[in-house]
Amino acid sequence: MSHNLNVKAFFFNAKTDYLPYYKHFNITVEDDANIKEVLAQVQEKNFDFFYPKQKLIMKVNGLVVEAKEPVSNLVEKLGTELTIEPVKAYRSNNGLNINDDDFMQNYALLEPYATESDLKYYKTLYALHYASETENFDHAYIGDAVLVLAHKMISEGNEHKDAILNAITSVNSGLLDCEYENNLFNAKSHDAAITALKDMLNSDKDEHPSLLEMIKNRFCKKKEEKVVDKKERVAKEIEDLSDKSIAYYAGTAQDNEENIAQAITALDVREVTFSRKNKLSGLSILKDSKTLALHKAGATLLDAYDAGAEVLVVENEACYEMFEKYFKEIENVIGRKMRGLELLLASDFLAQVNTVKA
């Protein structure tokens, strides 16, 4: 069995090109071929196409893929229309070749406390580093790989725990900016490691308050916190819902997608699809990194808005409340107005549709 692929390949030579461009190729490979063999065929057809022979990773349809990935796996998940790009286009110096100095520069944060074994492990996280979602919003972000290594080192009893935590939080964009999700084709979950690091950091703050905090606690009387009963949320309805284009933001939840899809079908309206439907939107980092959180929230809202959504149905209540509360600030952060975009919690949407049907 063979695979007939329509490949859209990235071209850019920093010495001769002002902007990157793409070329299309029809490629046929056998069922047991890997993605590196696809690259070789593209290069045979156009000698201006370059890719590294070592540490070869690339982005295929937005996901980070390693050289030995079978084409059959890619086709099964992504189809036969494949866009091949460098893992970070802004780092490209020639085709898929990138300047990857940042990988070891970020390792230098932990190098004083690391062993040869730690370094060896870190090098296995090369693809993970360039699949970091947070880096898409802040190029200064140190990368998920360093954080995963930090957790490994501490978990294995490294005596420099405090120094390691300080190294990954004192940088311009580090642990507190991480809302973990990666763009690996073969996704790996390191949520538990990131959460554990943040818990360690918060625990250390509680156990070792700063001098300023101790002075404040000593001389400043704390105001008694007023207990305010949270008002019961009133269900929201949108007027003329059946006349509007609707998009659904599921986030990481997937259990309700079929119900939402059926409800949209019942209304007989256009369902708008958008790429960030299942991405995170900054909720978990809102307290520690508000501006970055609002950038992520804005990316989601704007993606749905530009795709043509007039109503965005939001699955998670806390995320919905964040969108509503900070909507104006989000517009200011992203520098765009999203006039006419209305937000509706998924449970309210289903209730309204059921009322209309009844």
Give a description of the structure.
This protein is of the alpha/beta class. The protein has three domains: 2-98, Ubiquitin-like (UB roll); 101-207, Fumarate Reductase Iron-sulfur Protein, Chain B, domain 2 (Orthogonal Bundle), CATH 1.10.1060; 241-357, Rossmann fold, CATH 3.40.50.11810. Helices cover 40% and strands 15% of the residues. A five-stranded mixed β-sheet has the order 2-1-5-3-4. Helix 11 (290-306) packs across helix 13. It is globular.
Would you identify the regions where 5 or more consecutive residues have pLDDT less than 50? Answer: none
Report the radius of gyration as a whole number of Å.
Answer: 24 Å
Give the name of the CATH architecture of the largest domain: 3-Layer(aba) Sandwich
- Report the mean per-residue pLDDT as an integer: 92
In spatial order, strands of the major sheet run 2-1-5-3-4
Question: What are the main properties of this structure?
Answer:
single chain, 358 residues, alpha/beta, Ubiquitin-like (UB roll), Fumarate Reductase Iron-sulfur Protein, Chain B, domain 2, Rossmann fold, 3 domains, 5-stranded mixed sheet, 4-stranded parallel sheet
